[in-house]
């Protein structure tokens, strides 16, 4: 075959692929949940390495910011420890009014600690407390946790729905919808990089129809007190009485987003060292707030012996 004919054949094949609308990721043959999960597990580590997994510890700095609906930045430390299906995630911030978050699951019971000076949960904590599938299913923390449900789907008995490639923040990602065995009001989506099959994002969404009570402390729509989670820097915010009068019929929406990046080889596993949490609430009075907890340069280790007191629920 001449060079000219070879070039024409190559161009024709390329046009055929483009005309079919099949992306390179789809051409790899991932067409169902089972195949995606299998490739994802291989992206974490070898089957033997995964079988020998006992514990993970991830720790490092955390910075809390209010992105929408307030102002303030707080610095602190974060630690995520897990063993089997047990976990503790703590973010300790240097502020007396809002001192961070603590979530614990001992394999049976879960705990969301009080996080404010008034001995109440933050709005984020109240959300996780009410929608405890985030903790009980081992979803929180993604592959940073030994409780990650995709490591042991037979035990979890969750259902997965493969939803193909979706555009997420300008990037095409595989979308896997997670349905816990126990009914949950949450809509849970797990997103995976189509090239590496690494888990890079989880989103949890929950809506409350107009007329029903909003969720948790801080949802009433009034001005947050200086030094509170809604305003840790002490800057006042305008009141919302006019919004209350005009926005009563809106839905209340909550969204929790976990993002994972900067993957590195750790003790035979490939794990993220950048973990970002973002919590959004859109209240029926028209007020929207977005909180962000950013954890970079995490120090991650595996199979260390852990004190059982890490997972005590009192």
Q: What is the CA-atom radius of gyration, in angstroms?
A: 22 Å
CATH domain fold name:
outer membrane lipoprotein receptor (LolB), chain A
Low-confidence stretches: 1-27, 216-228, 233-248
- Overall helicity: 10-25%
Shape: globular
Amount of beta strand: 35-45%
User: Architecture in CATH?
Assistant: Clam
| Helix segment tally | 8
In the residues, how many domains can be counted?
1
Specify the structural class. alpha+beta
Along the chain, the helix and strand elements come as HHHHEEEEEHHHEEEEHEEEE
**Under the CATH scheme, which class?**
Mainly Beta
Give the distance, in angstroms, between the N- and C-terminal Cα atoms: 77 Å
Provide a brief overview of the structure:
The protein has 314 residues and is of the alpha+beta class. Helices cover 19% and strands 38% of the residues. A hairpin with a 7-residue loop joins strand 7 (171-179) and strand 8.
Description of the molecule:
- The protein is an alpha+beta fold.
- It has a single domain, classed as outer membrane lipoprotein receptor (LolB), chain A (Clam), CATH 2.50.20.
- The protein has helices spanning 3-20, 24-27, 33-44, 47-51, 123-130, 133-136, 153-156, 241-246; strands at residues 55-68, 73-83, 86-93, 100-105, 110-112, 159-168, 171-179, 187-192, 199-208, 252-266, 269-282, 288-295, 299-302.
- Strands 1, 2, 3, 4, 5, 6, 7, 8, 9, 10, 11, 12 and 13 form a 13-stranded antiparallel β-sheet that branches.
- The radius of gyration is 22 Å and the shape is globular.
- The model is unreliable at 1-27, 216-228 and 233-248 (pLDDT under 50).
